[in-house]
Design goal:
This protein is of the alpha+beta class. It contains 6 helices and 13 strands.
């Protein structure tokens, strides 16, 4: 299954109704508003939780109320984090970026990018085994995102792993990191985070992984 010939994740965008507070490094204005709000407003995520919502605790995002529909299971975990299998997918303040927050570990969060937005011409070829594992019947059912690795020091670019994207099926709420058969894409493709966050702030607050 080849995804990206028509160029996008537009068929299956994350639901904008997800309720989240963005990290201050991503959007300082949102953080300022949260900190200046009364205690009752800051605790609204907990109070608003219902049978179809979960309150996720995150060092990066704070307290986040997430629809259960936006919690995905990675049955095999992620590379280096096999013991953590359930993650909430939360849109960041800037279009084309998301947070992947472990539901059982506040310290574990990944910054994800839409590869079709950051790498024009991107495509991914998913194996038949991955299709079956995820329950994908057509390319339009897949949401493809890539993990962003933040620079270790100033002057170095952030990179994203275009060869090993994360593929989500919203219908089954299953996800998996796959190895694309399209081998022209890099494991460490530089991306521009200008306007998204300072590297120093993100480097202090986000788990980087490939």
């Amino acid at each position: 299954m080849i995804i990206g010939i028509d160029g996008s994740n537009a068929n299956v965008p994350p639901d904008p109704s997800m309720s989240a507070v963005a990290h201050p490094a991503v959007n300082a204005a949102e953080d300022s508003a949260r900190n200046s709000a009364p205690d009752s407003a800051r605790s609204s995520a907990s109070n608003a939780a219902s049978d179809t919502q979960r309150v996720i605790h995150s060092r990066v995002l704070g307290e986040v109320a997430v629809s259960s529909d936006h919690v995905f299971t990675f049955p095999e975990g992620l590379h280096g984090f096999a013991q953590h299998t359930d993650y909430a997918l939360v849109p960041a303040a800037r279009d084309g970026f998301w947070w992947l927050q472990a539901t059982d570990e506040p310290e574990l969060a990944f910054l994800l990018a839409d590869p079709f937005a950051v790498a024009p011409g991107y495509e991914v070829d998913i194996s038949a085994g991955d299709e079956q594992f995820l329950g994908l019947a057509s390319p339009g059912e897949a949401l493809v995102l890539t993990v962003v690795t933040l620079p270790a020091s100033k002057g170095e670019p952030a990179t994203t792993n275009l060869r090993g994207p994360l593929v989500f099926n919203a219908a089954t709420q299953r996800a998996r990191q796959v190895v694309s058969a399209v081998d022209r894409h890099s494991l460490h493709a530089p991306i521009d985070l200008t306007g998204t966050a300072t590297s120093d702030a993100l480097r202090n607050d986000v788990t980087g992984a490939e």
